[in-house]
Amino acid sequence: MEVLEKTLEVPLDEFLDRPLFCFLAQVSSDGEPRVSPLWYLWEDERIWIIADTVERSYTTRVEQRPGTALAVVDFEVTTGRVEHVGMRGRAELTPLDEDRVYRLLRRYLGEHTDEWDPGFVGLDNDRWSFIEFEPDTVVARDQSFSPSLD
Question: How is domain 2-142 classified at the CATH fold level?
């Protein structure tokens, strides 16, 4: 993984540890661009995304065209803080790992699985897998500004 630019004041790992959305950008088979906002886990210098292989088209796009771009943005309008990480790399579908699923979901749903939305408990390995995204290049920018809102 080559970091092409790093103007963030926080380490990349610390930024990507925040429970934000990543935006998975792909080109469909008809040549049209698509973006999917998804929960993720940054681990082992990869982005891990839980993927519904039955009802979502982004998994088919990963299989057809593994070249993928991904962005994560943290934005606070009242302070003008804008932090952005953009990545280009390759994605592939890989089997779920129960421990990794828990580490990913607890970032968004909390520690206690008995309090989670039932749709996130006991994911079926025949329907769900991981999108494992390995970045080739990374741009990590602080794009903050002086806010003019009251």
Answer: Pnp Oxidase; Chain A (2.30.110)
Domain range annotation of the chain: 2-142
Euclidean distance between CA atoms 30 and 14, whole angstroms: 37
d(CA 125, CA 86): 30
Cβ atoms within 10 Å, residue 141:
15
User: For residue 51, what pLDDT is reported?
Assistant: 93
For residue 44, is pLDDT > 90? yes
pLDDT of residue 103 exceeding 90, the answer is yes
Nearest-CA neighbor of 36 among 67, 13, 65, 69? Answer: 69
User: Which DSSP helix (H) or strand (E) runs through 141?
Assistant: strand 128-142
What is the sign of the dihedral through the CA atoms of 45, 114, 116 and 93?
positive
Q: What's the chain's average pLDDT?
A: 93
Q: Are 123 and 113 in contact (CB under 8 A)?
A: no
**pLDDT of 110-149, one tens digit each?**
999 989 988 888 888 889 999 999 999 999 999 999 988 6
The number of C-alpha atoms within 13 Å of 13 and in the hemisphere containing its C-beta is 3
State how far the Cα of 53 lies from the Cα of 68, in Å rounded to an integer: 17
